[in-house]
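Structure in, sequence out. Go:
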C-alpha cells in the first residue's frame, strides 16, 4: 500500500523544509559575505550557479519519470530507481572533471580555485544523484521524508561552512569541502529512506517505464532533462549574464536580493513537484485532470496576494537586518523580483498540466522560451545600464511573463475540451 499524494499536505511538507533550509542557507551566505573579500564572493556565487546548471545534465530527466509514474508502477518503481541511478553515475563521472575545469577557466585564477572547482562540481553531481530516491518518496506520498532529505542537505552544508570559515577563513578548498558535506549526507539519507519505502510496495501497473532499457529511458527522459536544465538556469541566468556582461560586484548585489527572492521561489518549485505526481495519477483521465487543475489554480491565486505583500515585507526587513551593507541597492532589485515571483507562481498550474501531457517536450520548450526572452532582455539591458543588477531583475520579469502567457495558452489548448467522460473527482 502507498500513501496518496495530497497537494496541500505534501506542498506544506516540502515548502516547510525548503523554508527551513533557506533560512539556514541565508546564515551561510552571511558567513560567506563576511569571509570573502570584495569580488571573491561574486566569484564563489558564479561557480556554484555554473555547477548547478551543468550538473543538471546528470539528471537526464529520469527522476521526473519516477515522480510521474512511481505511484502507478507499484513494485516496479524499485527497479526503475536503480536503473536510473546506474545510468546517471555513468554521466556524472566525466561531468565532474569537465565541469571543474570549465569553472576554473571561467572564474578561477589559481590552482587553489581549480581544486575548489572540481570539489564543487563533485558536490553538485552528488546532489543530483539523490533525486531518484527523492522523487520516489514524493510519488509514494512520503513528501515528509523527502523534506527531511532536503533539510539534511542544507543543514550539513551550513555546519561545515561555518566550521570551515571559522578555522580557515575564506579558503576556497576548505569551503568547497564543507559544501560537499550536505549532498553527501543527503545521498545516504535518501538511499536509506527510499530503499526502505520502495521495498514495501506490492503490485502496480505495467507502463512504458516498467521495462525500458537504458537507451529508452534516456529517450523518455530527454524532454524532462531539457526542462530540468531550464528550471535550474531559469533562476540563475541573470547572475550568469551579469558575470559575463558586468562585474562580480553586480553579481554580489543581485545575489543578495536573489536570496530573499528564492525564499519565496522554493515553495513554487515544491508546488510544481507535488502537482507532477498529483496530476500524474490521473494523467489519462481528462475530466479529473481538469478538476484538479482548477482546484490548484484557485489555491495558488489566493496564496499569491499575501505572498506578494507579506513575503515582500519580510524580504525587505530581512535584507535590512542581515545584509545592511548591501541593503540600499539590493532592496530595489528585490522589489522588481517580487513581480517575477507572482508571474512564476501563476504559471505553475499550466506548466504542470503540460508537463504530464503526452508531449512533455512542449513543457521544456515553454521554459526555454522564458529563458531565451530573459537572455535577450539581459543582453539588451545590462551593458549600458548604470545599475546592471536592476536591469537583470527587469529581464527576469520579462522571462517570467513569457512563460506564463505561453504555458497558459498551451494548457488551455490541451485540456479545455473535455472528452465525453462523466468522471468526477472523489
Amino acid at each position: 500500500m502507498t500513501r496518496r499524494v495530497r497537494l496541500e499536505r505534501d506542498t506544506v511538507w516540502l515548502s516547510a523544509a525548503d523554508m527551513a533550509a533557506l533560512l539556514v542557507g541565508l546564515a551561510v551566505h552571511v558567513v560567506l559575505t563576511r569571509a570573502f573579500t570584495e569580488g571573491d564572493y561574486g566569484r564563489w556565487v558564479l561557480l556554484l550557479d555554473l555547477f548547478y546548471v551543468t550538473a543538471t545534465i546528470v539528471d537526464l530527466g529520469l527522476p521526473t519519470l519516477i515522480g510521474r509514474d512511481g505511484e502507478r508502477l507499484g513494485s516496479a518503481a524499485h527497479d526503475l530507481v536503480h536503473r536510473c541511478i546506474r545510468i546517471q553515475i555513468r554521466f556524472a563521472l566525466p561531468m565532474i572533471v569537465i565541469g571543474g575545469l570549465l569553472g576554473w577557466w571561467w572564474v578561477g585564477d589559481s590552482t587553489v580555485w581549480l581544486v575548489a572547482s572540481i570539489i564543487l562540481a563533485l558536490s553538485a553531481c552528488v546532489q543530483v544523484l539523490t533525486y531518484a530516491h527523492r522523487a520516489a518518496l514524493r510519488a509514494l506520498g512520503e513528501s515528509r521524508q523527502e523534506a527531511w532529505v532536503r533539510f539534511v542537505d542544507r543543514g550539513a552544508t551550513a555546519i561545515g561552512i561555518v566550521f570551515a570559515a571559522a578555522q580557515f577563513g575564506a579558503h576556497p578548498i576548505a569551503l568547497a569541502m564543507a559544501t560537499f558535506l550536505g549532498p553527501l549526507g543527503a545521498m545516504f539519507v535518501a538511499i536509506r529512506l527510499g530503499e526502505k519505502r520502495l521495498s514495501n510496495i506490492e503490485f502496480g501497473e505495467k507502463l512504458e517505464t516498467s521495462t525500458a532499457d537504458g537507451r529508452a529511458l534516456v529517450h523518455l527522459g530527454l524532454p524532462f532533462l531539457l526542462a530540468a536544465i531550464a528550471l535550474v538556469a531559469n533562476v540563475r541566468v541573470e547572475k550568469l549574464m551579469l558575470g559575463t556582461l558586468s562585474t562580480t560586484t553586480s553579481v554580489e548585489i543581485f545575489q543578495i536580493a536573489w536570496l530573499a527572492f528564492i525564499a519565496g521561489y522554493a515553495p513554487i518549485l515544491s508546488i510544481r513537484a507535488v502537482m507532477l505526481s498529483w496530476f500524474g495519477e490521473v494523467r489519462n483521465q481528462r475530466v479529473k485532470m481538469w478538476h484538479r487543475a482548477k482546484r490548484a489554480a484557485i489555491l495558488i491565486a489566493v496564496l499569491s496576494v499575501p505572498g506578494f505583500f507579506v513575503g515582500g515585507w519580510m524580504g525587505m526587513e530581512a535584507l535590512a537586518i542581515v545584509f545592511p551593507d548591501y541593503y540600499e541597492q539590493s532592496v530595489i532589485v528585490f522589489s522588481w523580483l517580487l513581480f517575477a515571483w507572482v508571474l512564476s507562481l501563476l504559471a505553475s498550474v499550466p506548466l504542470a498540466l503540460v508537463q504530464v501531457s503526452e508531449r512533455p517536450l512542449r513543457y521544456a520548450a515553454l521554459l526555454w522560451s522564458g529563458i531565451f526572452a530573459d537572455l535577450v532582455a539581459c543582453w539588451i539591458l545590462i551593458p549600458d545600464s548604470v545599475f546592471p543588477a536592476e536591469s537583470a531583475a527587469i529581464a527576469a520579469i520579462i522571462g517570467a511573463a513569457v512563460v506564463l502567457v505561453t504555458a497558459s495558452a498551451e494548457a488551455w489548448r490541451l485540456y479545455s475540451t473535455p472528452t465525453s467522460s462523466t468522471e468526477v473527482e472523489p
